[in-house]
């Protein structure tokens, strides 16, 4: 991007990739080859030169990372891979581990549990992060035109991740809420990780919220700042127009969060815990920094010299102005 402010006065903005990143792929309660793809591909598209990846060591695989994770990393050309997990992995990326030949990184990305999210908060200032992607959450805005079983299955799908996962339904219909609760019991009971799911659904972080109307539902969603926001109502675009804060938004009955987790083409590394109020999901932009490049020639600088002198005097920083006037024959 190039802006010509006057003859001989040009400011350019270029996008420069960070040189080295550390990508975290969780592996405690599940195996996440999809998270390898979601982390690595945007970094490669951005042009990052050096990519390191970490995933927890697996007792079932002789202390190595899960072979599926290793295989996907190899397919993507990543050959710097560490069997380490949790908060320790984030700290290792930020500070480096000379004994392992692990050099510090400029940015750490990737989802994890509450300890990974907390560690990413701690290392900010030492290294950059994408967002605090901790225990997952889903918020579904639905009216009585939605399919209760679809909504229930989507809530269960995210509760499956972790006992601390948040599953929230926001609706303007008490009768519809009851139907969803009935289907939740069935869905949570019949699926494989039912104990974990029930713990998440019964936790204080999960809820059914009754509102007066869908405008109030949008207000609630904005205050909540969901990682995943589904809108399953008659007029989805009207509700979408009122949404400001969400990591990713899924519109209609055939756009479940699971689609975004695996195959939509969007990224599933998203801000959790209300972080979407000020943070965005992972993308190539996460690994890029805008840099402004200033090019003025002598006449262009001479033109703005009086402005600089006036402002520098007003701010009691005279050397700032003197750095300009020195170029035009004024010497002390």
Automatic annotation (TrEMBL):
Q: Name one GO cellular component term.
A: cytosol
The reactions it catalyses are: L-histidinol + 2 NAD(+) + H2O = L-histidine + 2 NADH + 3 H(+)
EC number(s) from the headed UniProt entry: 1.1.1.23
Identify the SUPFAM superfamilies for this entry: ALDH-like
> Keywords assigned by UniProt?
Amino-acid biosynthesis, Histidine biosynthesis, Metal-binding, NAD, Oxidoreductase, Zinc
Name the Gene Ontology biological process terms.
Answer: L-histidine biosynthetic process
Task: Give the protein's cofactors.
Answer: Zn(2+)
Asked whether the keyword Aminoacyl-tRNA synthetase is assigned, the reply is no
GO molecular function ontology, one term from the record: NAD binding
**Domain of life of the native organism:** Bacteria
InterPro entries the record matches: Ald_DH/histidinol_DH (IPR016161), Histidinol_DH_CS (IPR001692), Hstdl_DH (IPR012131)
Q: Which family does it belong to?
A: Belongs to the histidinol dehydrogenase family.
Q: What does this protein do?
A: Catalyzes the sequential NAD-dependent oxidations of L-histidinol to L-histidinaldehyde and then to L-histidine.
Q: What is this protein called?
A: Histidinol dehydrogenase
């Amino acid at each position: 991007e190039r802006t010509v402010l006057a003859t001989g006065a040009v400011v350019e903005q270029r996008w420069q990739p960070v040189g080295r990143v550390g990508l975290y792929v969780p592996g405690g309660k599940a195996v996440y080859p999809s998270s390898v793809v979601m982390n690595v591909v945007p970094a490669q598209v951005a042009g990052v030169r050096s990519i390191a990846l970490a995933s927890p060591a697996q007792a079932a695989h002789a202390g190595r990372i899960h072979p599926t994770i290793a295989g996907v990393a190899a397919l993507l050309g990543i050959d710097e891979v560490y069997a380490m997990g949790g908060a320790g992995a984030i700290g290792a990326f930020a500070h480096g581990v000379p004994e392992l030949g692990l050099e510090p990184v400029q940015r750490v990305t990737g989802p994890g549990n509450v300890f990974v999210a907390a560690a990413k908060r701690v290392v900010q200032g030492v290294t950059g992060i994408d967002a605090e992607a901790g225990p997952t959450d889903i918020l579904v805005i639905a009216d009585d035109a939605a399919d209760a079983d679809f909504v229930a299955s989507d809530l269960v799908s995210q509760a499956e991740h972790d006992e601390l996962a948040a599953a929230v339904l926001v609706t303007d219909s008490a009768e519809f809420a009851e139907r969803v609760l009935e289907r939740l019991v069935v869905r949570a009971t019949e699926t494989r990780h039912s104990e974990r799911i029930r713990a998440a659904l019964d936790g204080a972080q999960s809820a059914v919220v009754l509102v007066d109307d869908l405008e109030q539902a949008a207000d609630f969603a904005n205050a909540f700042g969901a990682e995943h926001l589904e809108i399953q109502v008659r007029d989805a675009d009207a509700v979408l127009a009122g949404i400001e804060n969400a990591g990713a938004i899924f519109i209609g009955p055939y756009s479940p969060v699971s689609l975004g987790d695996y195959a939509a083409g969007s990224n599933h590394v998203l801000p959790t815990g209300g972080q979407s109020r000020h943070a965005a999901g992972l993308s190539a932009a996460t690994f890029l920094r805008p840099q402004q490049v200033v090019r003025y020639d002598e006449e262009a600088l001479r033109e703005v010299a009086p402005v600089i002198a006036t402002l520098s005097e007003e701010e009691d920083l005279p050397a700032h102005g003197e750095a300009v006037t020195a170029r035009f024959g004024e010497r002390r």
